[in-house]
Design brief:
By secondary structure, the protein is α+β, with helices and mostly antiparallel strands. It is about 35% helix and about 15% strand. The structure holds iron/sulfur cluster and FE2/S2 (inorganic) cluster.
């Protein structure tokens, strides 16, 4: 695989062909905020928080770094007036759904995002898809998925699968940037009992 030389935030970075700009930046210790990226999962490009500015052959574009491939002599800026402005707005939109999520609050501080800018639609889930994709791609269980569409889209555990698989796993819990996943699991447990709780399971 051939090596590609690019520039990220003024630093010369060597990347392998096929890498994304996000991977190249991370390999060089340059941080780009992400909410839907996970190194074990296929690139998704859902949250758009990882946008960066790229410059090639005199053209400047805003691209999603977790799905955008590296290219020879590409110039990447992970922060710019435009990138920060868009990131701030993305965060404000997400905060309308999950105003109390710690991860979003920390990012909001860094980008000066106002959690009250948009009308609250506290669904708690920001649709990053980490839980759904992790369960499907890594665990191959499909115990959690999205139901409904558009603004009504929400996360839901499949009780029959969750009853068998989740009590002993819960690897998706720490991936969730909000409280939505745990809330959905608790709801599943209460609606479709007996779903073994961790406590009763560990006592078995
Ligand atoms: S429940 Fe959490 S991890 Fe799953 S899609 Fe929603 S925000 Fe992402
Ligand atoms: S981390 Fe790239 S779009 Fe979410």
């Amino acid at each position: 695989m051939s090596e590609i030389l690019l520039q990220i935030d003024g630093k010369e970075v060597r990347a392998k062909e096929g890498m994304t700009v996000l991977e190249a930046a991370q390999s060089a210790g340059i941080s780009i905020p992400t909410l839907c990226h996970h190194e074990k999962l296929e690139p998704f490009g859902g949250c758009r928080l990882c946008i960066v500015e790229v410059e090639a052959r005199g053209w400047t574009n805003i691209v999603v770094s977790c799905v955008y491939p590296v290219a020879k002599n590409l110039i990447v800026r992970t922060r710019s007036e435009k990138v920060d402005r868009i990131r701030k707005m993305i965060l404000e939109l997400l905060l309308a759904h999950a105003p109390d999520a710690f991860e979003l609050q920390d990012l909001a501080k860094a980008y000066g995002a106002d959690k009250n800018r948009f009308e609250k639609e506290a669904s708690f889930c920001i649709h990053c898809g980490l839980c759904v994709r992790y369960c499907a791609e890594v665990k191959k269980k499909h115990a959690v998925g999205f139901v409904d569409r558009g603004i009504r889209k929400e996360i839901s555990f499949i009780p029959e699968i969750a009853a068998k698989e989740c009590w002993n796993c819960k690897e998706c819990f720490p991936l969730c940037p909000t409280e939505a996943l745990q809330a959905a699991f608790v709801l599943t447990q209460s609606l479709f009992s007996p779903l073994p709780s961790s406590k009763s399971a560990s006592e078995e």
